[in-house]
């Protein structure tokens, strides 16, 4: 993680100072912005590896910043919310945030979540010595080399986490994949969020690949356990 750049967006000077010190002590480079408009400018100028984003910001609200960042980049986004902002947490995840931290939080927790967000997704279940370059199931095709997804012949753009979820479930078709394993394989074993993060991403993925997301045919819920691929 040495040298990884963090964009910290918050309008509370004392919090920014303490978080900056904590992150720098762990070897991160930190750039900051105090409002939403400045966050976009700094992001485009500095190209950070991860964004820590407060939702309550001047000029441009954090949710709008999250949406705009996700429209132009797959950078990991970690949002900061208050306990009373549960609806904002859910909306933030739906807009493409990777994780959230609820205020008040410890500096150690924040640093751990930043590390988890920066971990590359890993898949511990190999596909064999001659891995396929393309996965097909019913109306869905996935080109593994190009990381492209096609539904009924039409290309569908998926954020990184949704693509990884789709790939894991497809390669494990017919098997139930526990929520714990999905979080481990897609977010990394240092992830400190909860199952709500996973469920929000699954719901967004269903909306893009299922004919009727409320009655899914491909991504099936195994109650109390996890998910499995139900397509051919």
Describe this protein's structure.
With 232 residues, the protein is an alpha/beta fold. The chain folds into two domains: 5-118, 3-Layer(aba) Sandwich (Rossmann fold); 134-229, Winged helix-like DNA-binding domain superfamily/Winged helix DNA-binding domain (Arc Repressor Mutant, subunit A), CATH 1.10.10. It is 40% helix and 22% strand. It contains eight helices and twelve strands. Strands 2-1-3-4-5 form a five-stranded parallel beta sheet, with helices on both faces. Strand 3, helix 3 and strand 4 (77-82) form a beta-alpha-beta unit. The longest helix has 15 residues, at 195-209. Mean pLDDT is 85; it is low at 121-131.
Question: In a nutshell, what does this entry contain?
Answer:
The protein is of the alpha/beta class and 232 residues long. Helix content is 40%, strand content 22%.
Rounded mean pLDDT is 85
Summarize the biggest pleated sheet: 5 strands, parallel
User: By CATH's scheme, which homologous superfamily of the largest domain applies?
Assistant: Response regulator
How much helix is in the residues? 25-40%
Low-confidence stretches: 121-131
What is the CATH class of the largest domain? Alpha Beta
- Radius of gyration over C-alpha positions, nearest whole angstrom: 18 Å
The total of beta strands comes to 12
What is the terminal separation in angstroms? 41 Å
Tally of helical runs = 8
Outline, from the CA principal axes? elongated
Widest beta sheet: strand line-up:
2-1-3-4-5
List the keywords.
Arc Repressor Mutant, subunit A, 4-stranded antiparallel β-sheet, 5-stranded parallel β-sheet, alpha/beta, 232 residues, 2 domains, Rossmann fold
